[in-house]
Design goal:
Distance between the termini: 32 Å
CATH architecture of the largest domain: Sandwich
CATH superfamily of the largest domain: Probable inorganic polyphosphate/atp-NAD kinase, domain 2
Strand content: 35-45%
Order of helices and strands: EHEHEHEEHEEEEEEHEEEEEEH
Radius of gyration: 20 Å
Number of helices: 6
Number of domains: 2
Largest sheet: 6 strands, antiparallel
Strand order of the largest sheet: 7-6-17-14-9-10
Length: 290
């Protein structure tokens, strides 16, 4: 565990706007931090003003209250600027979150004493090309999904790695995931669980039909190109955000980002395996947790 001797310049506290108790809890945390001499502010997670403040280096720690979706949003806005994120779990699963709602006072005391370490998670960059012209670029923490949209028919996806033809998938879609994303959609699609420190790209088909049905783990330096062939609806979806329509011959290129998401951790680095089985066996999303 690293001891950070200097205090944060400013901590922003961002509760998820749709969680009823998140705003009240955020106010309690702000009061606690101010009582301990820390400059802080309340922020709206999905407000452009927060993203702008991070971009302008006015904030050097983002504390978020919510679930894993909240952490994904935080990663998107903080990753490009190296701003660490501390997650307090108010959601269902909280695989990426560090502390539970009833623990925050003890852990924030440790935060102010510098008793934490920063875990760096690899991100991806996804670029969309339409008629060979760049049509969008996105930072990715979990995964990129390229595949079918509204109509329940498979699409044909040509996959290339570093410019070399890999295979053609006939499937509902293709996932390109980070190690972080290996415990998200890729896991649900039957993929392997990768340790969070790995800097690899996981390529995995969703419901492949007479196509490669095993995940492929690529090195960090690889570039994946996916060319869409379809006469019906197709889409790209980044980290579960609003999908973007794709058409015949659109190309998606995916590679390791130059940025990382940095998560504040208090547990020792072995926390991932220690927490893995409880998360899998007591998934509160099923309603069967005990």
């Amino acid at each position: 565990m690293t001891n950070y001797t200097s205090r944060f310049k400013k901590i922003a506290i961002a509760p998820h706007p749709k969680l009823s108790d998140a705003g009240q809890e955020a106010t309690k945390i702000e009061d606690y931090l101010k009582q301990h001499g820390q400059d802080t502010c309340l922020a709206a997670l999905y407000d452009d003003q927060l993203a702008q403040s991070i971009k302008e280096r006015e904030i050097d720690l983002l504390l978020v209250l919510g679930g894993d979706g909240t952490m994904l949003r935080a990663g998107h806005i903080c990753g490009p600027y190296g701003v660490p994120i501390l997650g307090i779990n108010l959601g269902h699963f909280g695989f990426l979150m560090e502390i539970r709602q009833n623990q925050w006072q003890n852990y924030i005391s440790e935060l102010l004493d510098g008793k934490f370490w920063l875990e760096k998670r690899m991100m991806l960059t996804a670029r969309i090309y339409h008629q060979d012209e760049l049509n969008g670029e996105y930072q990715v923490l979990n995964e990129v999904f390229v595949g079918r949209a509204g109509i329940v028919r498979p699409v044909r996806l040509e996959a290339y790695v570093d410019g070399r033809f890999l295979t053609t998938y006939v499937a509902d879609g293709l996932i390109a995931a980070t190690a972080t994303g290996s415990t998200a959609y890729a896991l649900a699609a039957g993929g392997p669980i990768l340790p969070p420190e790995l800097r690899n790209i996981l390529l995995l088909a969703v419901a492949p039909h007479l196509s490669i049905d095993r995940g492929i783990v690529l090195s960090e330096g690889s570039t994946v190109s996916i060319i869409v062939h379809t006469d019906h609806q197709a889409q790209i979806c980044v980290d579960g955000q609003t999908p973007i329509a794709l058409v015949e011959n659109d190309r998606v290129e995916i590679s390791a980002s130059e940025h990382n998401a940095e998560f504040v951790r208090f547990q020792d680095p072995g926390y991932f395996y220690r927490n893995l089985t409880p998360h899998m066996n007591q998934n509160p999303s099923t309603g069967n947790s005990r």
